[in-house]
Amino acid sequence: MDVRFINAFLEGTLNVIKTMANLSPIPGKPYLKKDGSANGDVSGIIGFTGAITGSMALSFSEKSILKIVSNMLGEEIQEINGDIKDAVGEITNIISGAARKELEQIGLNVVAAIPTVVSGKGHSIAHVLGGPSIIIPFEMEEGHFVVDICINRMEPKAK
Amino acid sequence: MDIDKNMKILLVDDFATMRKVIKNLLKQTGYYNIAEAEDGVEALRALKSEKVDFIISDWNMPNMTGLELLKAVRADKDLTGLPFLMVTAEGLQKNVLAAVKAGVSNYIVKPFTAEVLNEKIEKIIAKM
Questions:
Q1: ipTM of the complex
Q2: B17/A93 touch (CB, cutoff 8 Å), yes or no
């Protein structure tokens, strides 16, 4: 995968979490994931069409998302409830928007669908394209989360 | 610049969590008179039944989008002059242009801080 794509999602994630939750997660080395398992307890998934097709999932451990949303709302939340799922959908949407803005800078116009949220221990991620995905891991003192991307660049149509 | 911090702001977003986040940011900068709506349809109903001084609206919403709400407000003789700040995750150039063409007062891309939100509000009020 083009490293610029990975950087777009990485930078978008750092910017969104820092601005909305005042947290600075530390990104780890990206790696390939070959199955559909989620690396977390709650995930937001969003599909893409346009210059890039595929999907991105954000999977949060319970502790990491409780900290992020508690910081966002300025109140302590202690369990994965409706507010958390609502926030995961919105965070997914905003990170997708930030990444797509980066991709627009390199001439790629990408359209996003409406995010969906899945939760529960051991849930799985169904990427639009299937096949292996790239995982960008993030660590915080309170827990971990990952950005899980499975995308293909569409070749421009010959004129 | 003289800004009436008591002005009534209508906050339109389908995500309850996001409304809570933006409300917190508004309160941090001294705006406490805030009404809420879940989408454009509910917002239009509120605009017909109560006096609102400023609209802050999300772009992507079910039933009626922020852009459709903006167009409806600009087309209504009683509401047309209302300041309208579009808040969205869509920072793409074509979307900004569509909102400007429809008469948006200003545009803010998520995520943002309380300071940035306040700056945008002040800029809009200063131009009025």
A1: 0.80
A2: no
